Amino acid sequence: MVALKVEDMKQFTSSLFIGNLFDGFLVREAEIVTFNTFRIDGKVQRDYYTEAELEEKHIGELSRWEALKPICFALIKGKKLPGSFRIVFQLSLSRTEEFLEKRQLPVRADQISGLYMNVRYEGGSLYCVTGTSVNYFTMDKTLENEWDDAVKEFLRDNKIPYVSD
Fold it and tell me: Which residues of 117-141 are buried (b: 16+ CB within 10 A; e: fewer)?
């Protein structure tokens, strides 16, 4: 786990709420504090959709950021900054498999509960905090270290300046 302090909040939040940089991520949960506290658990209510819609739109257990972004943006836009916000992004199963293959890690995707990037804005600072969750016991930190490096590369490749906290 690493905490990366984003140095250019305007650029980052523009990429987050207006651009499409984070659209491929799943949302485990989100919380936005303005005049109220708004919480989104990210879990898709499958009964809301027909089987055809679920199949056609490739809707899984969690919502994609692309679907929740307009709602979250509507909550924060205006003249006042939000008091805080927190979004827990999770890598999809297919992207987890790609990550494992690219990094040549000896772990199966079904052994990983989640690869996370937690975006936190509070007290005027914005952080990206990495996290991993596996469903087996291990002392090996290779997966965690590789995920930390992958998130750093993601930010660097997208020209988002940060410092390690």
Answer: bbbbbeeeebbbbbbbeeeeeeeee
